[in-house]
Amino acid sequence: MFTKRDLLQQRTSIDQLKRHNSLSPQSADMLGQSIASSWQRSVSSEIPKERLAAPLLARHQKVKTNLDLALEACSNDLSHIAAQSSMVIAVGDVGSTIIWTASSTQMQSAAEKVHFIAGGQWAEEEVGTNALALSLKTQQSSCVFSNEHYMESVHDWVCYAAPVIDPYSKQVLGVVDLSTTWKNHNTLGVLAAERCASIIQTALTEQQRQRLYIRAFASPQVMFNNKSLVLTPRQIEILAILALCPNGLNLENLHQAVYGERKVSVGTLKAEMSQLRDILGGMLGSRPYRLLANVEADFLYVEQALDSGYIASALQLYKGIFLSKTESPFLCAWRDCLESRLSDMIFKTKEIDLLLKHVAHFPEAIDAVERLIELLPLDHPAHQSLNKFRDIS
């Protein structure tokens, strides 16, 4: 437990580092490397000095995600924790936009004032250093104390955050943040955030009893109820098509989506569907053909990230060409559309580090190479390597 004197000394030390703009290696050790790096990124983001509240995104109807459904199941437990601990609890999506909150009476007014509410955009490039965004960026638990925050209006806060990880796919689905006043800072705060993340992850497990997960980037794989299935490439294509058409397809439309103009009999497709129904234990409906299990897929996550404008999340999930060997006209057209949308977002971003990391994994990503050449000064040491990538492409 910290004394008031300890906390005041900590605030004074942070103020001194900020005043001298001292971000030396020694300072980074005092702050923690993740906080020091976040400060530097926040400064380069040119966040308006007068910004005292997070930008507020208008709420709109959307298809409920597994995270939304899990929150419906465990919201009472989380609300109880907020009330008993004199905190505000917020759950954010992968782009640091808050999708759910519960607040104690002590923190409610302060949370509303800075838009620490549903729709509040707490991405680092919008409001600077904060625990919610930092936890998503590092994919680890984090604590941001008082004036470690970039935005002055939350200097009276201390925030603890932990990523929410899907128990099956191991993908980060979002983040949970617990916040209170800096005078109530406690060494157990991070553990409390991790406990809340665990509550959400348990709810995710409960609501995913019949769960189908499709990985279609890089090496395709299908998991059903946490067990890997042995499927043919054609069967994986069929599942991917049905995942992209949740309302289902009749036999004729599914045949066209899979085979196009190739001369393959309808009977062949019927046989494929019969085998898939046996493998999935009845989780494949007919008339129309549709998936009855809870469906998740890496390509659906990328699509959702693009819909939300979250380029960092989209590039992180994009681990290779989508079903690179498919001849399905439907899947080829969808892949072309996805790559076009991703390329358009790449040419609009100014995040150099993000693009450098993407090119390191995919040197053939000519769109990212071209964008980096536009963004980097001519004397930057990466230019020579980037030009080589462009020449190879």
Give the termini distance in whole angstroms: 58 Å
Number of strands: 11
Rg from Cα: 24 Å
Biggest β-sheet description: 5 strands, antiparallel
Strand adjacency order, main sheet: 2-1-5-4-3
What are the low-pLDDT stretches, counting only 5+ consecutive residues below 50?
none
- Share of residues in strands: 5-15%
**SSE order, as H and E?**
HHHHEEHHHEEEHEEEHHHEEEHHHHHH
Helix proportion: 40-55%
Mean pLDDT: 88
What name is given to the CATH topology of the largest domain?
Beta-Lactamase
GO molecular function, one term: DNA binding
Protein name: OmpR/PhoB-type domain-containing protein
InterPro entries: GAF-like_dom_sf (IPR029016), Sig_transdc_resp-reg_C-effctor (IPR016032)
Write up what this structure looks like.
With 393 residues, this protein is an alpha+beta fold. The protein has 3 domains: 4-206, 2-Layer Sandwich (Beta-Lactamase), CATH 3.30.450.40; 211-297, Arc Repressor Mutant, subunit A, CATH 1.10.10.10; 298-392. 50% of the residues lie in helices and 13% in strands. The protein is built from 17 helices and 11 strands. The strands form 3 sheets. Strands 2-1-5-4-3 form a 5-stranded antiparallel beta sheet, with helices on both faces. It has a 4-stranded mixed beta sheet with strand order 8-7-6-11. The chain has a two-stranded antiparallel ribbon with strand order 9-10. α2 packs across α3, α4 (66-85) packs antiparallel against α8 and α12 (298-308) packs antiparallel against α13. The relative contact order is 0.08. The mean pLDDT is 88.
